[in-house]
Amino acid sequence: MRFSKKILTAAVCAACIAAPAAWAQTGKISNGVVKIGVMTDLSGLYADLAGPGSVLAAKMAAEDFGGKVLGAPIEVIAGDLQNKPDVASSIARRWLDQENVDMITDLTGSAAALAVVKIVKEKNRIAMVSSGGTTRLTNEDCTDRTVHWAYDTYALANGSARALTQEGAKTWFFITPDYAFGHSMEKDASEAIVAAGGKVLGSVKHPFPGSDFSSFLLQAQASGAQVIGLNNASSDLITTIKQAAEFGVAPKQRLVGMIFMITDIHSIGLKATQGMIYTDAFYWDMNGETRAWSKRFFERQKRMPTMIQAGVYSAVTHYLKAIKASGTDEAGVIMAKMKATPVNDFFAKNGKIREDGRMVHDMYLMQVKNSEESKQPWDYLKLLKVIPGDQAFQPLSKSRCPLIKK
Amino acid sequence: MKLGKTAVGFVILVAAGIVAPFVIYPVFLMKALCFALFACAFNLLLGYTGLLSFGHAAFFGSAAYITGYVITKLGFPVELGILTGTVFAFGLGAVFGSLAIRRQGIYFAMITLALAQMVFFLCLQIKATGGEDGLQGISRGFLLGFIDLSDTLNMYYFVLGIFLFGFFLIYRIVHSPFGQVLKAIRENEPRAVSLGYDADSHKLLAFILSAGLSGLAGATKSVVFQLASLTDVHWGMSGEVVLMALVGGVGTIFGPVVGALVIVTMENYLSGFGSWVTIIMGVVFVACVLVFRKGIVGELNALIKR
Amino acid sequence: MFEWLGITPQGLYGQLLVGLINGSFYATLSLGLAVIFGLLNIVNFTHGAQYMMGAFVAWMGLRYFGVNYWWSLILAPLAVGVVGIVLELTLLRRLYRMDHLYGLLLTFGLALIIEGGFRQAFGISGEQYDIPEALTGATNLGFIFLPNYRAWVVAASLVVCFFAWFVIERTKLGAYLRAGTENPQLLQAFGVNVPVLVTLTYGFGAALAGFAGVLAAPIFQVNPVMGSNLLIVVFAVVVIGGLGSILGSILTGVGLGLIEGLTKVFYPEGSSVVIFVIMAVILLIRPAGLFGKEK
């Protein structure tokens, strides 16, 4: 009797001592671990420009941070959204309800990104989008738990379209994939062209995904436009460029890939892509910092990073820094901290997160080298011009985000 | 004898259904239930009538979109929304069925595929369906005006109720004189016709019922996930439901439920493995066709008989 | 008059030519499927994967063994044909006595395995395959710069299609095959080794798919999903043409290529669905397809 009373008392005392400590711990980091979910396309169309590379980038960020923040371990998990919004929202629900994920990043595919940021807002966590490019994330569908990190369709369209039109390429024809991303790119690009004094002679929308583009290339040739803007991505873009070479489009007309990744160039080869101009947010060979990081990435992934993958590293690091600085991982506090802190790393120079969630940073106008200029694999690009952040992205005044106080 | 076995199965199903959400993640269970209903509805046509349709995604998905649309844009309450989607699927089933029933075998399958592809195209192009973003943000609302369905547990029991209703309905259809005629048609259509049964109208009715209940599954799913997307009308979805029926046991009443559970679980656990999912699905398909032709439940039945 | 259509006569001829090129490609691709269904009554869903394998064998041949395109045109189909024969002997053979549904499902499962396997091994971006030296460049026909390679595709397709049709409809071997479909026992009684004939036919159909794959490699991306994207179109071609009619699928393939080409001009977004609309309409008016015989 007395024996068990002693045990009971001891237990109560222990509990009294342990409780405040535990409480203090949970007051700082929820569930004692900072869990980051990288939701990306692991095996489909975009697996090369995001996919396992994005997961690696997030893991590198966690490792470089020391693997721990405020005493809690950092865990990175991956999910394959297979470019389907319903798969993405399933995974998001499971991660946020059951697996205590604190932040979801990458989010390949605009449809999936839009679905997930709603759920993230509902469950009061944070989403940092690197892959998905739709400007809706910082306009109609903005939330105060979303950060749009690497790029968006406006920045890409504006950079290339405006630069080329100002150079003298005044007439354009678009080959656009028939889905929201394609439409958005075409719209943003058309506006930029008209604003710079050019004219859009026509466009053709092809079923997405497509396979044979010869008919559309013929229509583009028939239009006589100086520039043929390609709004498709990944394998559609690669096929179009290849077939354009077959039909002898260049040099009479210029081809512009509006959303072009270094992995695409690697796939097609320099012969068909040399001289092409496009807008990017990152290039591995830009300076010493980018080279150093990219070489480490290359050792593990065997490919050079795209802007999306570098963007994931940058976003995750910024997030972790915000946690360390605020002493907690509560979403609202972290968000405020991230917005208040400028971003200056190898990925983004003069970066800042605006009220609409847009991370504004410098973009780069790049040109593909020709075979003589390229000294080794992946040495594909040269920098033409730096586009300062406030010019590259949609001005805050034009934003349709309800969070902005006008 | 048979009634006893089925009754036992039914009791296990209901009991498991009531207890499950406390052990397993409810959202996963709801997904399984929606697909189980879809597979059962599909099996009504394949297993009990002997007609293979490659276009059932059209009913599943279009009901999802209709329900989503009336709830978000027209402000319908949840029950009315799901009902509308289901009624639409019945109607679509009547239209497609009357066109497809005229043909047999592979031609029947190809017509259903062609019609479903047209539905897919419409869903892709019409503004109201949101293209490949899908219809997002479908609110769950309040059941009967006061039960808050954004509470996962409430939603779960609602879905369970719908599933059990659909399942029981299919059971009654199968074990009715109508169902017997369907089985006769499946076994030997010319003989059934010679006995005086109007095969075509029986097949058509089976098609419509199968379509409508698939629609019920789709409508419910759109409310569970608050999203209707192109995946729901894609021909891959039609292929998936064939797989579920096949794996579980075509022509058994519990087969499709088991099949749906197996496939949904597999997809869940293998989602991080990229292309391995496709390979494993393929292996399952091949194995079922070569070795487990009766499906899981069918093989179990055979084992019990021994 | 043509301005009203929004396109010049030259433009239209150019588009029709492109449509013809695609059509002859569809014809070759659907030929293998038509042969297998027509003569063996198997709905070969693996066809898309066999097409893809043909392209990959050509690519691997070039990359790792230096086998050039011209050799690949013969070797790749042979390789795919052999794989097809193996599949037939080990797996498909068991299902002949059963409902056709099982053959369909088996080949569907096989397609998933093959495609998944290639995806796992090669990723999804696809690989480059260059147009062979002799066929690069384009000829200026006035209304279009026709790439020489595409002209070759039309020529090769038509030759192969004619050859296949001739063998099946006009030779003794073809007669045996057709007889074997109608009444295998009787044919066996006459001393013809029907099982061997069946196996070889399946191999031939698969080889045709592989041949189409080699043709496609320089113009489309050689990637693991190239087959599944086209498979559903090819099925539509075969069904519209009439399952079992070789001539039917050839003519339908070309016809559909032309119609698709025109759709790409006047309503490009719909160019992927027009085939299904036609399929539904044809099946409703002529149940066995345009040239098929109701079985």
CATH architecture of the largest domain in chain A: 3-Layer(aba) Sandwich
Which strands sit side by side, in order, in the main sheet of chain C?
1-2
What is the radius of gyration of chain A computed over CA atoms, rounded to a whole number of angstroms?
Answer: 23 Å
Percentage of residues assigned to helices of chain C: over 70%
Molecular shape of chain A: globular
Sheet with most strands: strand arrangement of chain A: 2-3-1-4-5-6
> How many domains is the backbone of chain C divided into?
1
* Strand residue percentage of chain A: 15-25%
* Number of strand segments of chain C: 2
| Number of distinct beta strands of chain A | 15
Order of helix and strand elements from N to C terminus of chain C: HHHHHEEHHHHHHH
Helix-strand makeup class of chain C: mainly alpha
Q: Give the termini separation of chain A.
A: 72 Å
Strand content of chain C: under 5%
Q: Which CATH first-tier class of the largest domain in chain A would you pick?
A: Alpha Beta
| CATH superfamily grouping of the largest domain in chain A | Response regulator
- Described by its quaternary structure, the protein is heterotrimer
**Main sheet properties of chain C:** 2 strands, antiparallel
Query: Approximately how much helix is present in the residues of chain A?
Result: 40-55%
pLDDT below 50 for ≥5 consecutive residues: which ranges of chain A? 9-27
Task: Outline the secondary-structure elements.
The complex is a heterotrimer of chains A (406), B (306) and C (295).
Chain A: H1 2-28, E1 34-40, H2 51-64, E2 68-69, E3 72-80, H3 85-97, E4 103-106, H4 110-122, E5 126-129, E6 146-148, H5 153-167, E7 171-177, H6 180-195, E8 199-206, H7 214-223, E9 227-230, H8 234-246, E10 254-257, H9 262-268, H10 270-273, E11 277-280, H11 288-301, H12 307-326, H13 331-340, E12 352-353, E13 359-360, E14 363-368, E15 381-387, H14 389-392
Parallel strand pairs in A: 1-3, 1-4, 4-5, 5-6, 7-8, 7-9, 9-10
Antiparallel strand pairs in A: 2-3, 11-14, 12-13, 14-15
Helix pairs in contact in A: 2-12, 3-4, 5-6, 8-9, 12-13
Chain B: H1 2-19, H2 26-46, H3 57-72, H4 78-100, H5 105-125, E1 135-136, E2 142-143, E3 147-148, H6 152-174, H7 177-187, H8 189-194, H9 199-225, E4 227-228, H10 235-248, H11 255-270, H12 276-290, H13 295-305
Antiparallel strand pairs in B: 1-4, 2-3
Chain C: H1 2-5, H2 9-40, H3 47-65, H4 69-90, H5 100-122, E1 138-140, E2 145-147, H6 148-170, H7 172-182, H8 184-189, H9 194-216, H10 226-241, H11 246-266, H12 274-285
Antiparallel strand pairs in C: 1-2
